Amino acid sequence: MKILYMIFAICLFLYADNFENVEIIEMNKPFFVVGEIYQDNEAYIEGVKNSCNTQIVQDFQTENIIAFFQSAKEYDSYQAVAYCFYPCNITGKIKLDSEIWDFELNEGGFAVLKSKNGKRYFGDESRLYECGI
After folding, report:
1. Residue 64 vs residues 1, 22, 25, 58, 88: alpha-carbon distances, Å
2. What are the backbone dihedrals phi and psi of residue 78, each rounded to the nearest 5 degrees, phi first?
3. Contact 32/52 with Cβ under 8 angstroms?
4. Rg over CA atoms, the chain
5. Per-residue pLDDT tens digits for 43-72
6. What angle do CA 18, 93, 21 make, to 5 degrees?
7. Model pTM?
């Protein structure tokens, strides 16, 4: 029975929220990145430009960014290829517990944190392999 309790405790620890205190310090306007094959496609660029904002991209609203970092899975290496890569991104500064980080969050559910101490990688597990990769 002790083993069962130990397994439960370990699982609970592994799936606990990443950060107890999450505070957005600065949030920049969303921006988009267009691949080379779309550089000359004005209609595509205009469509992305019009849709890449916090009113349309729900993931970029403050409360959703906070929820993302509270529940996202942390990876030990860059795993963005396992997520859909959409043209829209948002950057800013975020305080996670007591440390301040620069963040970049892609609309596909993957984020990179950067500080003088290094980089950290996070993904929304519910969106892992969403594009069928």
Report:
1. 39, 11, 15, 7, 15
2. -65, 115
3. yes
4. 17
5. 999 988 888 887 778 888 999 999 999 999
6. 35
7. 0.77
